[in-house]
Specification:
- By secondary structure, this protein is of the alpha+beta class.
- The chain folds into two domains: about 45 residues; about 140 residues, 2-Layer Sandwich (Beta-lactamase Inhibitory Protein, Chain:B, domain 1).
- The chain has five helices and eleven strands, in the order βαββααββββααββββ.
- The protein has a four-stranded antiparallel sheet, sandwiched between helices.
- A hairpin with a 7-residue loop joins strand 5 and strand 6.
- It is flat.
- The protein starts with a strand and ends in an 11-residue tail after the last strand.
Length: about 200
Amino acid sequence: MRKQLASPAFAAAGLGHHKGSRLYAGDVVNKMIRIATLYAALFLAGCAGPIFKQAPLVGDPVAAVTSKMGQPTSVYPAPGGGQLFEYATAPFGQFTWMAHIGPDGRLVSYEQVLTGEKFAMIKVDQATKADVLRTIGRPAEQSRVRLRNYEVWSYRYKEAGVWNSLMHVHFDEQGVVRQMMNGPDPMFEVRDRRW
């Protein structure tokens, strides 16, 4: 026996099969599952970027890198020649890959750069915005701290591969890194613990 839902509002919204103004619970649940699955697939396709793609191989020419990974989100000049192709998943993703293309047009290295090790390479009081972009790519968010007139670039990442975190890189008016701070990413914090 199928359980009827009393609300004609569900029927008006087109949820489930209805006979006249009758709507059945199983129909609503099935349709909601299909909608949720579609949204999840679209979200993953938009945010995952390089996660589900085949990684390029060292020595691949630029054409092979872009055929495997698509067009980069940004391209930066590499120190010593060549280019850095950025493949970012920001603003909601926690991964950014950098493909280092050598002066000969071939892939030298390919790595995920939103890591504690890469953040440690950014030297406070020395690194510039250009250095940060070449090291970890573009930020997920940008803001300002008015008290010191700092521009803040924030990066979503997995601290130690486990904790959802944000790394905040603070720049002075000359574009030099003056401070770095990390903490939990509020986007992943559970706000309502009532069950």
